[in-house]
Each structure stands twice: as C-alpha cells, then as structure tokens.
Amino acid sequence: MGTASSLVSPGEVIEDAYGGEGGEACEIPVEVKPKARLLRSSFRRGPRVIGASFKSTGSVDLEYTAEYERLRKEYEIFRVSKNNEITSMQKKEAKLDEENKRLRAELQALQKTYQKILREKESALEAKYQAMERAATFEHDRDKVKRQFKIFRETKEKEIQDLLRAKRDLEAKLLQLQAQGIMVYDPDDSDDDDNHTTVTAAGTPCDYWGGGVLGSEPSMGSMMQLQQTFRGPEFAHSLCDVEGPFANVSRDDWDAAVASLLQVSPHVSQALWSNTVRCYLISTQETQAELDIFTQRYSPRLQSLCEGLGHFYLNICFPEESAASYALERRQEMERSSVCVLLLKSSITSCVLEDAEEAFVKNPDGRPLVLYLRTVEAHPLSGPTRQLLERVNAADKAAKVKVVDHGGSPEEGASMIYTQLEKVIKQELLGLEGSDVDSKDSGIDEGREEDLGDVLWDLHDEQEQIEAYQQACSAAAQLGFQKYIDRLNDMVAAPPPTPPLLVSGGPGSGKSLLLSKWIELQQKHSPNTLFLYHFVGRPLSTSSEPVLIIKRLTVKLLQHFWSISGLSMDPSKILEEFPRWLERLSARHQGNIIIIIDSIDQIQHAERHMKWLIDPLPVNVRVVVSVNVETCPQAWRLWPTLHLDPLNPREVKSVVNTECLAADVKLTKDQDKKLERHCRSASTCNALYVTLIAKMITNCRSAWSLERTLEQCLLCQDTMSLYSLGLKVALDTLSTDRERHVMREMLCLVCASHNGVSESEVLAVFPDLGLPVLSSLLYTLQRLCIVGLGCGLIRFQHLQAGEAVRLEFMDGGTCSPAYRENLIHYFSQQLSQDRVTWRVADELPWLLQQQEDRAKLQLSLLNLFVSQNLYKRGHFSELLAYWQYVGKDKSSMATEYFDSLKHYEKSCESEDSMIRLANLYETLGRFLKDLGLLSQAVAPLQRSLEIRETALDPDHPSVALSLHQLAGVYVQWRKYGNAEQFYKQALEISENAFGSDHACVARELDSLAMLYQKQNKYEQAEKLRKRSVRIRQKTARQKGHMYGFTLLRRRAIQLEELTLGKDTADCAKTFNELGVLYYLQNNLEAAKVFLTRSLEMRQRVLGPDHPDCAQSLNNLAALHTERREYETAEDMYERALDIRKRALSPDHPSLAYTLKHLAMLYKRRGKLEKAVPLYELALDIREKSFGPKHPSVATALVNLAVLYCHLKKHSEALPLYEQALRVYEDSLGRSHPRVGETLKNLAVLR
C-alpha cells in the first residue's frame, strides 16, 4: 500500500499515537471521505505538512478529468431525458387543452340545450296549467249551461202548458160570452212599443178577445237576443238616431258603466277653480255692516266646512274705495269665482255696478248667484239700483238667482246670507245633496261609501294632474311642434315591440307643452286609444313620489275595465305588479295604450323604481317619457330619442308676436332687430327664455318702461338671470316696502314647503295683507311665469323659477331651515286633537323630516288624525317612509299606534268622541291589514265594532262597516267561514237600514260573491253578482246620485269646446252628439237646444234635403215624443221620412227605422189608416234585408196583423198570423214563447 498522504488535508500534522520515534511513519486507520470532498481538498492551497508523502499532481488531474467526463455524460443523459419528458408533457398539455376546448364547447351547447328544454318545460307546464284552467272553466261552463238549459226547458214546457190551458180557458169563456151575447171592449191603448192591441166587434165568433193577449213587437234591446238587427239596440230605449261612438249604446249600458266608474274614480268638482270655493262679494257702503259680520263670524264656518271636505275657501272682496285701481284683478277674480253674492240697499257706485253687470247680467249662468236686498221704507231704491235689479230680473230667465229679501238687522241679514251660501256650496258646488256633512247620527264621514274599497284615492293628486294637463294645453304658443308631433305619431304607428321613446331637451325647452298638445290631438283623432299621463312636479313633491305615480296609473288603467279587484296597497307590490296589470289589461283593450310620464328624471330614484321600462312592453303599449339632457340616466340614453332643438328665428318671432298680440303691445322695428340678434345662442333660443322675455315686455305699461325692460332683458344670457330680473321687476311694481317684504317671504315659504302654500294660508301668516294686494301680486307673478295656482296651492311654474328665488332671496338655500320652522309653527297651530286637514297631514310630517327632527316627527305621526288623513287619501308609502325614517319597523309601529289609541280612548267621553275613536280603530285595522299584519289587524277592528255597537246601535250602518272590514281580514287569512258570517251580518244590517236597492247592499253582495268564487261556489257567486249589478244600475239612474254622471258631462264639455269654430258638418255632428249625451242625462231641455242647433247648422251647410238633416229631425221627433208633444213629433218624423225616401234606397235600414217609429206614433194617436202603409213598407224592407224566414219579418207580420185587427180587418189579419207562426216555428223552434203568443192570437181570431 502506499502512504496515506493523499488523505491528509494541507496544514494538518499527523502525530504518532503510539509513541514512535520521530521521522518514522506508522500505519494508522484512516476513514475514507466522499470523492467530492477529496476533489475539493486536493485543490486547497497551504503549507505542506512535514514528513508527508504526496501523489503527483498529474495523477490527480487525470482522475478528476475522468470523473468529470463521467458526470458530464450522466448530466447530458439526464438533461436529454428530462427534455424528452418536457416535450412529451407539452404535447400532452396541448392535447389536453384541445380536449378541454372541445368539452367546453360541448358543455355550452348542453347548457343552451338545457335552458331551451327548461323554457320549453316551463312553457309546457304553463300551457298545461292554462289548459287545465280552461278545461275546468269549460267543464264549469258546460255544467252551468246544462243546468240553465234544464231550467229553461222546464220553464218553457211549463209556460207552454200554461198557454195551452189559457187557450182552452179562453175558448170556453168565449163560448160562454157568445152564448150570452155580451160584447167585449178594452179601450186602453198603451204608449209602449205596440205592447197591447184591442179589437171591438159583436155578434161573430171572432169578435172577442182580451186586450194584451195578442203578440207584439219587442223592444230592440230584446230583439238582439233573437237576431243581429240592422241598427243595433235603439239608442237609450228611445227613438233617437245617432251615429259614431254612441250608435250601439243603451241607457242601461251607460248606467252600468257609470256605476262601475264611480267605484274607483274620484269626483273632481268642475264648479271650483283650482280646488277653491271662491266667494266673490260685491258690497256697498250701506251693506258694509252685513259684510263685516259675515266675514268675521260666518266665513270661518264655511272655511271649516270646505277644508273638512278637502277644498279651500276664500272670500274675494275689493273695498269700494280702492276697487277702481284693481280693474284687471277684479275681472280675473270674477272669472275664477265659484259663487257671487251681491249686497244692495238703496244706492250703488260705478265699481259695484260694473261687477254686478258682469256677474248677474252678462253671464248669469256662469256660477251660482245670491242677491241680498235690504229693504227699508225710509230708504227707497235709487234709480240706478232699480234699473240694475230690472236688468238682473230680465237676464235671470231660468230663475236661478237666489234672492234674500231682508228688512231686519245686519246680524240677521248676515245669518241669512250664510244659510243661503252654505246651501249653495253643499248642493251646487260640492254635490252633497243638501245633507249635513257633520251629521252626528251617521257615525261615518261624508263620502264614506267611496272609502270602502282597497283603493284609496287622493282627490288632490288627481286634480293636480288634470290642472297640469289643462294648463299646458291652454298655452297659446305652438313653438313649431308639428315636426315633433309627426315623429311621435310615427312611433305610435311603428310595429311592435318598441322601446320607450325619450323626449329630451334642456330645462324649459317645451317638453311638457309638446306632450300635452300631442295628447290633445291624439284624443281627438284616436278615440280608441287609452292615454295614461302623469306630469311630475318639482323633486321631493308628492307628484314625484314613485309609488303614488304607479298606483295612480294602475288605478286609472283598471277603471277603464271597471274592475279594481286584486290591487295591493303594499308599496313594493304596487311597483312589482304594475307590469303584470299592464300586460293583462292591454290584452283586453282593442286599441293602443299610451303611457306618458313627463319629467321622469325628477322622480325619486327613477332608475330603480321604473325598471319595468327596460322590460319588453306588450304589443299595443307605447311609452313616452321626457327628461332633461343633463339628468337622464345612462341606461336610458340607448332608447330612441326625440331631442327638442332650440327655437329658430322664425319661431322666436312667432312666440313674441303671439304674446304681444294678446297684450295689445307692438314692438318697433329696431326692437324686433335687437331681439332677433340677441336670440341666436342655444341658451337665448330656449323656449322658456323667449317666453319670459315676451312676458316681461308685455308687462310694461309705457313705451319708456318697455324700452328699459328690453335693454335689461338683453343683458341676461340665460333663463336663470332672466328669472332674477323678473323677480326684481315684480318687486318694483309694488308700492310699499311692506308689500315687497311680503312677496319675498311668500316666495321663500313656497320654496321651503312640500307642495306649495295656499292663498288662505298666506293671508293667515300675514294678517295685515289684504286680498286685493295679494291678488295683484299673484297676478303679476303669474304673468311673469314665476308662480301659478295648482290644486289651490301657489307653486312655481318652472323649476328654474324656484332656483332663482333660492339664490336671490334665500342665500342659495341656507335660509331654508328658518322658513321651514315658520311653516312648522303655523301648521302645528292648525293641529288639533279633533280635526286635521289634508294640508296639515301633507306638510307637517314632511317639514319635520326635512328638519331631521325625529322626535317631533314621531309625535306628529302618533297624532292619530294625521296618520288617518294620510292613509285615507292613499299616501300609504309616504306614511311608511316616515316611520322608517323614525327607525320603527312594522310591528313596533303597530304597537305605538295601539298604545296611542288606548291613551286617547281614556279622554273620550261624549258620543261624538267615541264615534271618532271607532273610526280611528277601523283605520288602524285597515292599515295593518294592508301591511300584511293580519293577526294585529283583528284587535283594532274588533274594538271598532264594539264601540259602534255600544255608542250607536247594533243595527246601525256603521256596524256594518266594521263587520265588512273584519270579514276582509278573515278573507285574506283564508278563514272563509268567519268571513262569510260577517259579510252576511253586514248585508242584513245594510238591507234593514237602507233597503234592498242601496249601494251599500251592492257592496256587500260583491264581497260575498268574491268570497264564494274563492270557494268555487260559482252558482251562488253569479246570483249575487247579478243582483249587485241591478242595484248599481238602478242607483246610478236615481237623481240623488246624478253627480256620478259628471263623467258624461266632462265628455259633453269637451265636445262643446270643439264647436266654437265656424259652421261645419263636423260641428253639426258634434252638436248632435251633445244633444244625445244630454238626453242620456235626462236633461231634455239642453238636449233640445243642441239637437235644434245641429239641425239648423246642417240645413245651412249641407242643405235641407241632406240625410244628416233627416237624422237631426228624427232625433228631435224622438225627443218631442218622449215629452208627449206628439203633433210636433209627427211633423218632424214625416219630414225625416220624406228626406230619407228621396235620398236613400228603398230597403235602407235608416228608412225602416223612421217608418217604424212614425207608424208607432200614428197608432198611438189613433191614426190607424195612416199607419198601415208604413207597417207594410217596413215589412217589405225587412223581407228584403233579412229574407222571408227571418224572425224580424215574423214580428213585422204580427204587428201588421194587430193593426188590421184594430181596423176590424180580421180576414186580412188571419193569413199574416199564420205566416208569422210558420216563420217563428221554422226559425225559433216550436217551443219558443213567440210561437205560443202567436198561437194564442190565432186561437182568439179563429
């Protein structure tokens, strides 16, 4: 072996462990280390170890090289193998990626197939359910028809047996009479449509039969059950002949329609201007005492009466000494007044004479009039006063002026004026039929009947929309809208489906005006189109509340289908269910349904609450919305858009000229050029901007002020600066600093309020402000387009007007909290424990919420009358929002209300207070029921029932109301047995209290029918529903309920407005429609006026021989027939018949129509010989129109035979009866009642 020096590291010294001598190498055990260690060690540098033995360096290098080569080869082999593995893995990965893509594609295809199959499955299930429903309905209808047919067959068989027995009895009696030689004579001749016939003869076997036995022609209403006649049902069961939309309408149809509409449509009084009873008082110095007593003592009573019914009351009186300086204001207030009172004694002044002439002489039918005349022997009437009274008496042809002739003290006179005014307001203005609205015995509020359904209307919301639409339609300027109207018409005519159309433009570009004008034109030219519109006011106002908007549109949609069942009061459900109602009801409507929402971007959270706009609309539904360009939601910008461009120079000039012409102001050429040069930019060509300039120019009273105002206007480059100038101009028109202060304060209060402030509230806040000054101030502000009156409230006409007030008078809005505090103080004073007006309920909680005063807000809500007022007016969502703001959930809110009611109950001692308490408990129960808290709703309703039974009487009608509401809760709870018991008790009480034909009875019948329908008791439900319909038809016809026909009167007024142009055939047709509409309302005098005007106009325009003249003559003849003016009617029928014979073909239905009714009139007047040829001609026309075997021909044969019997021509009557019998048997069957009637006639005749 060699030495182990190669194993010794450099620098190490090896010592002899066995004590050997120095320099002698000893063999020792050595641990062999790894090669890698050896290699590293061999390259270390250091001092050599003395006495060590080293291998040569060359051998080490050779060993390293060999080892290195081996390792390198191994590495190369390893690297190649790994590269091969990587390549293989990459190939596998690529292959897996391709497989993954293929699988993903297959998965997507499978998902699509799955979705398609799922949709098909859902469709199939839906179709299955629909088919099952149809099958169930069909089976039910089939069973129903079987039962009805069985009953009908048994009834008719019994009738036939009775007829045969009657025939045998008559034959026996006839033989007895013949044997006795007694002659039978019945002189009665009915005025009905040939319903009875009598014949007189003696000595022959055919001479004797009783009157009324022979058959007769039925009314056309019943004829519709037999065949499709040539004219449809006779109009209104009379002889009126009409074309167009009323051609197939009967009075019963109208009654049913009106009765159904009255269930859901609020009655908006047309006698009030902007929801205010405006009493115009004209007085002299001699009657100033009566006026002062009336205004101080009795006006508050009338104000309380009107506010309790949701209206304002305002006395309009211009003092005699200053009346001359308010000429324009007096004329405007006279036009707006609801009732006018003239107080006279002996003398009269010029201003009083002017007002009296305007109200009592020139326009005596414009409003109710009251004339108070204080007669004193010591002061005889002066000449002018006597002449005025004579002119008033001559103008009062209809004797409508209420005269109060008094000779006592002023106190008694004021009391008599109050009594007469109270009667006028209740009966003529508010339609209360003279009943006492504060009746203690009723136990319910006036108009309670309209408050019994699930849908609670707010009269003010509806009137606000009506006034907004009417004000926009009445604007004089057209602003070149024709191109936009054509585009809107194209959108309506476009094939479905169509997304909503966006009408966009800057503020004041005329979007509201365009939509109003388009609606007005569409309603004239597309009568089958249903329009639902809503004009949104300023943000945070009631008109911008989304739930109220959708609820109003839903109910307006439902009322056209005469059904409101199933509509929820829950705010979230109202928003959710509106698209479903729209789709369901659009399928039942024959024409288009167009929904227009103006300024939709002003709605609170519009994009979230109007999500239904994004969904596909039904095929016959079109939606038009308007927005400002700056505030339009981004998602809506993809819709088809109609953008309103700025006005061009020609349109600018047209707007200015229109305003100047109306105000009788003329601009110079230089002024025209200045305006034209100025109105060229986008901001100065804005429609509102141009209108404001025109208004401010025409407001000037002199050429110098006009030039100065024009120069100031030309310095304003946008609408906001122009509004600021308008405010300064309005301030300059006022004469005192006090008046200027009042104007600023009033406008700031309007800006800080929820919906505006009323005139009476302004007068109450500023007691030293007189009405003449307020009227003048409002007149100026209205002319400058700053404020307007809507629903009796002073509001800004445009959002920019309010913003200008905020900037000019309120330091950019920093003063708003102070003005809101002023309003809170005022409305808190109006708040009482016994009575809360709708204004307090509208404003006070909202103001407290804006002030972030949660404690006071909760206290105001716990005033039960505030919450009751909000709920009963349908502000359900608003009430819930207040409670959510306070931080209360539904259950805790219910607990708070119940505790508050318990506390209030402790203070109730009188009968009146207990009745109010019962009403509060009932309102709370209904509120909780609408919230879905059924278990909590039972307790307050039960308590209301107990109080009413104790305080009033167990059989009082109010008890029926509590039972009705309790039953409604149990219906929702699906406890049908309890509900049925309560409904039956309510029905029994209502029948005992009101009789079997009262509307309250119909309500209970409807509820019971709905309950039976839910229990699948269809036969019982149908019976009750039919009875309810009959009751509603009857009550709608009663005069005491005739204000329900206001719906018809509105249509009559619209038609009347169309007739203000020159004489045309269309105007004459409109007059004819008006006459027919007034006939439907039983207003025969008005009907005669319009039908006569229609005839005269047609004779002038078309000529006296035109067929349309025959129609007017026919209608007038029918009118005279109903008034039993037979001679005049006969003349007109003959003239109509002569025209139609010459103008129409011999077999024309209109000719047969006139023939029939003229023959009936001849028979009624005993002119039987003249009636025969007409009946014969009518028979020929029917044979040519329907063929010889039609039942209508058989009826004509019977009527002609009856006439021959009247004339003793029995031999000629016999073959007619036999022919009629054959026709009836062939067409109607041998068991038909007509066959039996004809057999009876034949039996008597033979």
TrEMBL record:
Pfam families: NPHP3, NPHP3_hel, NPHP3_N, TPR_12, TPR_NPHP3. TPR repeats lie at residues 960-993, 1110-1143, 1152-1185, 1194-1227. Residues 272-431 form the Nephrocystin-3 alpha-beta domain. One of its GO terms (cellular component) is ciliary base. Residues 650-809 form the Nephrocystin 3 helical domain. InterPro entries: NPHP3-like_N, NPHP3_ab_dom, NPHP3_hel, P-loop_NTPase, TPR-like_helical_dom_sf, TPR_NPHP3, TPR_rpt. It is found in: Cell projection, Cilium. Residues 820-1058 form the Nephrocystin-3 TPR-repeats region domain. SUPFAM superfamilies: P-loop containing nucleoside triphosphate hydrolases, TPR-like. It comes from the Eukaryota. Keywords: Cell projection, Cilium, Coiled coil, Repeat, TPR repeat, Wnt signaling pathway. Residues 498-623 form the Nephrocystin 3-like N-terminal domain. Its main location: other. Residues 86-180 form a coiled coil. One of its GO terms (biological process) is convergent extension. PANTHER family: NEPHROCYSTIN-3 (PTHR45641:SF19), TETRATRICOPEPTIDE REPEAT PROTEIN (AFU_ORTHOLOGUE AFUA_6G03870) (PTHR45641). This is Nephrocystin-3. It comes from Coregonus suidteri. The lineage of its organism: Eukaryota, Metazoa, Chordata, Craniata, Vertebrata.
